[in-house]
Amino acid sequence: MVDETLVADTQLIIRDILERSGIKPGQLFVLGLSSSEVAGGVIGQESNAELGQLIVKTILTEVEARGLDLAVQGCEHLNRALVVERQVAEAHGWEEVNAIPQLHAGGSGMLAAYELMADPVLVEEIQAHAGLDIGDTSIGMHVKRVQVPLRPILRHLGQAHVTALTSRPKLIGGQRAIYQADGIRK
Q1: What is the pTM of this model?
Q2: Beta bridge mates, 71
Q3: What is the residue range of 89's domain?
Q4: Average pLDDT of the segment spanning 55-71
Q5: What is residue 2's predicted lDDT score, i.e. its pLDDT?
Q6: I need a surface site. Which of 26, 82, 127, 142 has the fewest CB within 10 A?
Q7: How far is Cα of residue 52 from the mean position of the Cα atoms in its chain?
Q8: Is residue 51 within 8 Å of 39, Cβ to Cβ?
Q9: How many helices (H) and strands (E) does the chain have?
Q10: 144 lies in some domain
């Protein structure tokens, strides 16, 4: 895959999802990434550090430009822990866990985020407001309830299937309740 195409497609996807997700400055966005799937392989078997760097750098740039915080999910070998900036973890009271991501223990996305962030740490769990899943990495456990699926403008990045989630407040009160307008589902 040509690097320029990968970057352009990643920008198109992330801008689309950030626009439609309703996420606001100061909120948390989660990314799950399988570079193996992007390259046409099987998740977890052909991790590619270069692809991870390109994709994460592109997404991090877009997320930070909007005043959002990024969490990047690792693979099952690190129990799907996430890398975030230390100040984000401290602000949320998340407990730091001790591991240094590797290409085959954490994956290319987590490794790239660990290298690109100013002061990265790993945490076990978060509640993001929205997220992007490149390669069917199962980010749902890290997105707040109630989750709303978003169909990205491009359904594939390279050969990887792409999905996204956002969240909204729970509707409570039953048929007598009156609800605020839902900015996600217009």
Answers
A1: 0.92
A2: 30
A3: 1-122
A4: 98
A5: 61
A6: 26
A7: 13
A8: yes
A9: 5, 9
A10: no
**156-177: b (≥16 Cβ within 10 Å) or e:** ebbebebbbbbbbeeeeeeeee
End-to-end CA distance of the chain: 36
CB 175 within 8 A of CB 36: no
Cα separations in angstroms, 58 against 76, 92, 174: 24, 25, 43
Q: Is residue 182 over pLDDT 80?
A: no
Total number of domains constituting the chain:
1
CATH number for position 39: 3.40.50.10360
Rounded Cα–Cα distance for residues 157 and 160 (Å): 5
Quick check: is 37 in a domain? yes
* Cα separations in angstroms, 56 against 32, 92, 141, 171: 10, 23, 20, 34
The answer to whether the beta carbons of residues 180 and 165 sit under 8 Å apart is: no
In this prediction, residue 14 carries a pLDDT of: 98
E-assigned strands of the chain? 28-33, 69-73, 82-85, 96-97, 120-123, 130-134, 147-150, 156-157, 160-167
CB 63 within 8 A of CB 18: yes
Compute the distance between CA of residue 181 and CA of residue 149 in angstroms, rounded to an integer: 18
Instruction: Identify whether 181 is part of a domain.
Output: no
Q: Mapped to the 3 state alphabet, what secondary structure does 65-85 carry?
A: HCCCEEEEECCHHHCCCEEEE
